[in-house]
Amino acid sequence: MLKIGSHVSISGGLLGAAKEAYSYGASTFMIYTGAPQNTKRSPLENLKIKEGQAFMKAHGLSDIVIHAPYIINLASYKEETYNLGKEFLALELERTEAIGSNYLVLHPGSFTDKTYEYGVERIAAALNEVLTPETKPIICLETMAGKGKEIGRSFEELRDIIDRVELKDKIGICFDTCHVHDSGYDIVENLDEVFAEFDRIIGLDRLKVFHVNGSLNPRGAKKDRHANLGALEDNPKGKDHIGKEALYKLVHHPVAEGKPIILETPWLDKKTNLYKEEIAYLRGEEK
């Protein structure tokens, strides 16, 4: 069975998140442990973890993913920002383990006013400080779209970080389809070649999680604007330049087998998303 779901809200604790995911027909899901834009976090005892885990077990939900907040920038030259990032990453690892997830997805960081080399060294130093032999969740560095000065725009850039990390077994990769497409990889016509390149540079054994999203921009645009799967020109959110057929092929590729596949596609408005329909399509129930 395809291990697929979407980002869901943690506002009702793990129990509320699991119930929301189940309503979409999901078998897994992704959450932030609090708002992604700030450091405010509810105590773990308020997150209904045991109740959520019981609901998950009863309803076939497993292998969930946690996403680290956007405010963590391990490439920053600003000591306050850098130290906050390290401290908050350590906290999120603890919360990830407590919730019962094996994966914490992390945007590597942006070197802003410094150099790429500076940023990579900075990220690796932070990871070496935060990770210990006792760390259980795997930090999954996310493939990035290439906007601004963000690091992770290519498989080589992610490898540059991994090469400098001491506890390499604690590092994985989250493969975001919109980001990979926007950074220039051809996952529409040459998916096998892209996976072969990933294997050569990083190793497919490190690919732990997929974010599956369409893209509002042509390949190589370096924009990072997600689209609904196969969205047409008259869709209020815009056209998908990857296409639902290509994404269907990707999630059914042997490389994706058994891995959590998470939708982060746009909501049509503040109250409506297409997660249920998109999950059904990717499962093959509406092909």
List keywords for this structure.
single chain; 287 residues; alpha/beta; 8-stranded parallel sheet; two-stranded antiparallel ribbon; 9 helices
Summarize the structure.
The protein has helices at 13-23, 49-58, 79-99, 116-130, 155-164, 177-183, 191-201, 244-251, 275-283; strands at 4-6, 30-31, 65-67, 103-106, 138-142, 171-176, 207-212, 214-215, 226-227, 261-263.
Largest sheet, spatial ordering of strands: 1-10-7-6-5-4-3-2
Shape: globular
Radius of gyration: 18 Å
**What's the mean pLDDT score?**
94
Distance between the termini: 16 Å
Give the beta-strand count: 10
DSSP helical segment count? 9
Poorly predicted runs: none
Helix percent reads: 25-40%
Order of helices and strands: EHEHEHEHEHEHHEEEHEH
What proportion strand?
5-15%
- Provide the structure class: alpha/beta
Largest beta-sheet characterization? 8 strands, parallel
Description:
This protein is an alpha/beta fold and 287 residues long. It has 9 helices and 10 strands. The chain has an 8-stranded parallel sheet. Strands 8-9 form a two-stranded antiparallel ribbon. α1 packs parallel to α2, α3 (79-99) packs across α4 (116-130) and α4 packs across α5 (155-164). The longest helix is centred in the N-terminal third of the chain and has 21 residues, at 79-99. It is globular and about 50 Å long. The two termini are 16 Å apart.
